[in-house]
Structure formats: structure tokens, C-alpha cells
Design goal:
Blueprint (H helix, E strand, L loop, with lengths): L7 E5 L8 H19 L3 H17 L6 H7 L7 H6 L11 H11 L3 E5 L4 H11 L7
Parallel strand pairs: 1-2
């Protein structure tokens, strides 16, 4: 008689379960546009500030993610999720039958968890678009 072993499976969402390049590019554009609007400078200057700040943070061994960059340039990082939420994943994420079938099989005897640093609403929408939301614990 075989022993059934149940395990927890953990996946990263963005860039692992789906190709996020198009969505990432749109989010970056929205982030730079927000910096431009808040700082009242043009797009190219905002992009330059973003990359310079990222480079400085890395140089000093500090986190160089967008939240940290927002803080460093004097913007409220809590507004970052509003910017990210404003970019719809609809045109960048499509149903993936093979992925849905795989998650269906994996979910039969296991719990599946997804971790991400993306906003909750957008993440839930991405999981639904991929057709795997019902398999996530």
C-alpha cells in the first residue's frame, strides 16, 4: 500500500508562472509618468532620476526596488500600489490551458500558494486570467 504525501507548493507569480514583460513595461511607464507628474518634470528627467536613484541605493547596499526608490526621491510609497493597480493586465495575460491543467493536477493532493510583491487586486486578476485562481489555497 502506497503512502500519499501532501506537500505545500509555493510559486512566485510575476515572471515565473507567466511572462510578465509586457505588463512590467506598462507598469514602468506608469511609474515614470507618476514621478514626472509628482515632481513636475518631463518624462526623460523622471526616468533619469529613477535610474540614478536605483544606482545610488545599490552602491550603498540598500534595497533598490521601486518602493525604495519612491521613498528616496520623496514620494509616498503607498501610492505606488495605486499606480500599479492602474495598469490592467488584461492585454498582457492570457488563459493558459496547459498551466490550468497542471495546477488542477497539482491541487488534487497538495496546497498551492502564490507569493508576489504585486498588488492584491492585480494579482487576483492575473490568476483568474491564467485560469488558475481556483487552485490557489
Amino acid at each position: 500500500m502506497g503512502v500519499l504525501i501532501k506537500i505545500n507548493l509555493i510559486f512566485d507569480l510575476d515572471g515565473t508562472i507567466y511572462n510578465e514583460s509586457g505588463l512590467r513595461d506598462k507598469r514602468f511607464l506608469a511609474i515614470i509618468n507618476k514621478i514626472s507628474k509628482e515632481k513636475q518634470i518631463d518624462y526623460s528627467e523622471s526616468e533619469k532620476i529613477y535610474y540614478q536613484t536605483k544606482k545610488i541605493l545599490k552602491l550603498y547596499g540598500k534595497p533598490s526596488n521601486t518602493t525604495s526608490i519612491y521613498k528616496e526621491i520623496g514620494l509616498n510609497p503607498s501610492h505606488l500600489f495605486e499606480v500599479l493597480d492602474s495598469v490592467s493586465p488584461d492585454e498582457h495575460v492570457i488563459y493558459n490551458k496547459k498551466l490550468a491543467d497542471l495546477f488542477n493536477i497539482l491541487s488534487k493532493n497538495n496546497k498551492i500558494y502564490v507569493f508576489t510583491n504585486s498588488p492584491l487586486k492585480v494579482s487576483q486578476k492575473i490568476l483568474k486570467l491564467l485560469g488558475i485562481n481556483q487552485y490557489i489555497s
